Amino acid sequence: MKSIIIASTSTLHGGNYLEYLLPTLQSHFKNCSTILFIPYARSSGISHDEYTKKAAQAFAAINIKVKGIHEFENPEEAIQNAEGIFTGGGNTFLLVTQLYKNKIMQLLAEKVKSGTPYLGTSAGSNICGLSMQTTNDMPIIYPPSFQTLGLIPFNLNPHYLDPDANSQHMGETRETRIKEFHAFNAIPVLGLREGSWLEVKGEKITLKGNLKARLFKQNETPVELETETDLSNLK
Amino acid sequence: MKSIIIASTSTLHGGNYLEYLLPTLQSHFKNCSTILFIPYARSSGISHDEYTKKAAQAFAAINIKVKGIHEFENPEEAIQNAEGIFTGGGNTFLLVTQLYKNKIMQLLAEKVKSGTPYLGTSAGSNICGLSMQTTNDMPIIYPPSFQTLGLIPFNLNPHYLDPDANSQHMGETRETRIKEFHAFNAIPVLGLREGSWLEVKGEKITLKGNLKARLFKQNETPVELETETDLSNLK
């Protein structure tokens, strides 16, 4: 049975790394003594080692050890043997490129579908959708494909940001960008604000956290969804 | 001799489409009775026809006719015969995909390098750099390559946005995204704020408009450049 947490962000303003999620993660990873960390997205360009250390520090608070996938000689074996898996944020283009390069995109999807508990934040959440095509990140590297894990039957826009009515900036709003996506793609897109996450238990998908999320469907007016909304039938 | 205007945005807050640039464009396109418009980036997802009409309305104020490249049976011939060329903004992934699909990426570069006056705004400016890898746009479509026209020997970030000190949003700032780009790429990136543009005359590249621009180089602290700065030696 799938058991997945898909979080908009790792960190809330004024909080520490993963702090707001720790109570949820304690129960989510309750059967894990060690989890596998995938640091490929290299948040702010930091190294795999630095990033893994940061994750380990956060998980130490709930007595869970963290090992980086780059510490294993064989990334496929690392995935196969993992008790639980966490993919951190950073650059989605880089993350997806590395998952393909290390030939673990499909394996990771199968492993999580078979019931291994998974946590994604930001870029690590983006890859849970059907494609990475609604990421906010810069295309700093050319991935072999935009297709991702497909753990849920729609796409995500993490760090969803509402248009700022006072802004004089004329660059596209997030909503305009998603509208452009829907000019060519029929996949629904869920804008997850910072502090929201999706809980996936088997085939049940539920919106969690204190905030509403914004749902974009092709040729439809976007709608606000309340927390605890059941998204199992969204596709 | 190259003659190029590379603008951060088409429209300033409170202004009309291309309005702030019209005096510059009048002299830039002074020998053109008709210019070729490339609407492939489909700003906000509008159609090629609608977008071309919008461009034509703006250029009517300076007595220049506009014809969309999609109105020609053969896009290559349209480029070859153009007196002047304008590529509008929208989605850079879509623009680049269409340029490759219609086999005109290289031809457009050669045509502009041979002296045909060119105007780019936003996505149409992004493609003037070495690659589209510092775009702000969503990857709504998978282009065959991220390489672009290379009319200037560095990359651009149009609509450059300074970090908002009051923001509680934890998504990456523009500066963080460019830093991630520089973890893998040595190409300098010029952040062009809305209202700035580059003027290229032969090999001379000059920063124009009333604002400073922000220059990012790999492993260096970003610097602010004054308007009228000569960028001919930047690479």
From TrEMBL, chains A, B:
Q: Tell me if Protease is a UniProt keyword of this record.
A: yes
SUPFAM superfamilies in UniProt:
Class I glutamine amidotransferase-like
InterPro entries cross-referenced by the UniProt entry: Class_I_gatase-like, Peptidase_S51
Q: Which keywords does this Swiss-Prot/TrEMBL entry list? A: Hydrolase, Protease, Serine protease
The record's section on Gene3D superfamilies has: 3.40.50.880
> What PANTHER family does its record include?
ALPHA-ASPARTYL DIPEPTIDASE, PROTEASE S51 ALPHA-ASPARTYL DIPEPTIDASE
NCBIfam families with a match to the protein in the record? PRK05282.1
* Family stated for the protein in its record: Belongs to the peptidase S51 family.
Q: What is this protein called?
A: Dipeptidase PepE
UniProt source species: Flavobacterium ginsengiterrae
This chain is encoded by the gene named: pepE
